[in-house]
Specification:
It contains 15 helices and 14 strands. The chain is of the alpha/beta class and 462 residues long. The protein has a single domain, classed as Aldolase class I (TIM Barrel), CATH 3.20.20. α2 packs across α14 and α8 packs across α10. It is globular and about 60 Å long. Bound molecules: flavin mononucleotide. The site of flavin mononucleotide has 24 residues, from α12 and α14.
């Protein structure tokens, strides 16, 4: 039985096949589709010996091999967030590179293998680096740093999330964070990565500095837009001036186009932020230090990742109406700093349509469901992604489904077909068991990864 797919008007996908030249790196990406960051949950984990956490595994390498394997696969493959501390992490099973990690040994060889596997057919591989700040879960560590000492209220989520207590970062903390991100870029470059992306969206630490709602500082890192952007600019300048980062290394940033909370970032502020960052020194004559800005939105508490808004119903992309306000800050196409958009895009028609506003289109959950999706769309074999059953459609359940599918790919399987009613029912039953086990595990931290399937599933695409 063929998979059920999203509807798409018939369109010529030639615009998606157009290459793009990045500046300042000078690198060429061969098409306009990229696989966006999704934390894989596949790296090594140890509850107590924290330095043993976050090493890529054979499953991590297999996952990236699959995303890179087709002749016309994604132009760019972004990794899931790579944390810069062993115990201030976004999720158990994230990959980790800290200041303690020299570019040698098992961890480093794991990153080398991922880069090789992802690049086998010409995709560029970009490592996304991140720090959770006050979004750190309290069962992982009870205290953390943030721009200010604002603790998040517990989220009434399926996992009953409680958050660590933050203190406002000192100058020493900020210097350490900047040095850690710069070190990660040097490490990734040495491992054969084509670039690094700073995760400054979704309410994580760098987004906490950028957002007036979370940043109440009165020093050089708070207040005006240029002060709030300072930490990001310092990291970018550190990367660009490092003798251990090649000149053709791609530097990118994932930014929120908007936050959906009282006092949160507005699209107008995001426009000013993008303009400020782009005007900062960092790459000589050519201006801003970033090759591309990826626009997303929301925070962990309020993701905004729904198809409810009117413009989204028409154009699929969650944040396209905000992107329209922000992109002009970077100039008309062909602009120096390229802009990509991620979130909600499912049909070839919406992908091609988004190129009227931005330069490239990111796919998250569809890439976990169908590792061959870019190739199949660019070669005209399909015109949209698989449409999951309704119960698996929202970001919360969709995240767990995508995590499970990434785990299946890592094991050499094909992902389950989420458009299939029985497969969805079985996944939800396993998810309920997984949820109970996670709750029982609490701060023992012995469980890692996403939902494990108890019944064999029919592979997608059959
Ligand atoms: C399983 C999963 C893990 C994710 N992990 C990350 C991450 O590590 N970094 C990040 O910036 N966004 C992460 N996201 C958000 C995605 O990058 C993307 O913004 C979101 O899924 C919306 O895109 P989509 O509708 O194409 O899935 C994750 C999403 C999923 C589903």
């Amino acid at each position: 039985m063929p998979s059920n797919r999203w509807k798409s008007e018939l369109v010529d996908v030639a615009p998606l096949r157009e290459p793009l030249v990045f500046r300042p790196s000078g690198r060429v990406v061969r098409n306009r589709l990229f696989k966006t960051a999704m934390t894989e949950g596949l790296a090594s984990w140890s509850p107590r010996d924290i330095s043993q956490r976050g090493m890529p595994t054979a499953a991590s390498v297999e996952l990236y091999r699959r995303w890179g394997e087709e002749a016309n696969t994604f132009g760019i493959i972004e990794t899931g967030n790579i944390d810069i501390e062993y115990d201030q992490i976004n999720a158990i099973g994230d990959m980790i590179i800290t200041l303690n990690d020299a570019p040698s040994g098992t961890r480093f060889e794991g990153f080398v293998s991922i880069a090789k596997a992802a690049k086998a057919n010409g995709a560029l591989i970009i490592g996304q680096t991140a720090h959770p700040g006050n979004q750190l879960h309290a069962h992982i560590r009870s205290n953390t740093i943030s721009a200010s000492d604002i603790q998040l209220v517990p989220k009434k989520g399926p996992l009953g999330e409680f958050y660590a207590k933050p203190r406002a970062a000192t100058q020493d903390d900020i210097d350490h964070i900047v040095a850690s991100f710069v070190h990660a870029a040097e490490y990734l470059a040495a491992a054969g990565f084509d670039g690094m992306q700073l995760h400054a969206a979704h309410g994580y630490l760098l987004a906490q500095f950028l957002s007036g709602r979370m940043n109440r500082r009165t020093d050089a890192y708070g207040g005006s837009i240029s002060n709030r952007a300072r930490i990001v600019v310092e990291i970018a300048q550190g990367v660009r001036s490092s003798p251990r980062v090649p000149k053709d290394f791609i530097l990118a940033i994932k930014l929120n186009s908007v936050e959906f909370q009282e006092g949160g970032l507005t699209a107008e502020e995001a426009r000013q932020l993008v303009a400020t960052i782009d005007a900062s020194e960092g790459s000589g004559e050519e201006g801003g230090p970033f090759d591309y800005v990826e626009l997303s939105g929301g925070t962990w508490h309020s993701t905004g990742m729904t198809w409810d808004r009117e413009s989204t119903r028409r154009r699929e992309a969650f944040f396209i109406e905000f992107a329209e306000k922000i992109v002009p800050a970077l100039g008309q196409s062909p602009r120096k700093t390229k802009v990509f958009i991620t979130g909600g895009i499912r049909s070839a028609a919406a992908m091609v349509g988004a190129l009227d506003v931005v330069d490239g289109v990111g796919l998250g959950r569809p890439a976990a469901q169908e590792p061959r999706i870019a190739n199949d769309i660019l070669e005209g074999r399909i015109t949209s992604s698989i449409k999951p059953q309704k119960a698996l459609e929202d970001i919360s359940m969709g995240l767990r489904l995508a995590g499970t599918q990434m785990g299946q790919i890592g094991k050499g399987e094909e992902p389950l077909d989420a458009s299939d009613e029985q497969a969805a029912r079985e996944f939800l039953a396993d998810e309920a068991k997984w949820h109970a086990a996670m709750m029982a595990d609490g701060d023992k931290l012995e469980l890692s990864g996403y939902v494990k399937l108890s019944t064999p599933q029919r592979p997608y695409g059959e």
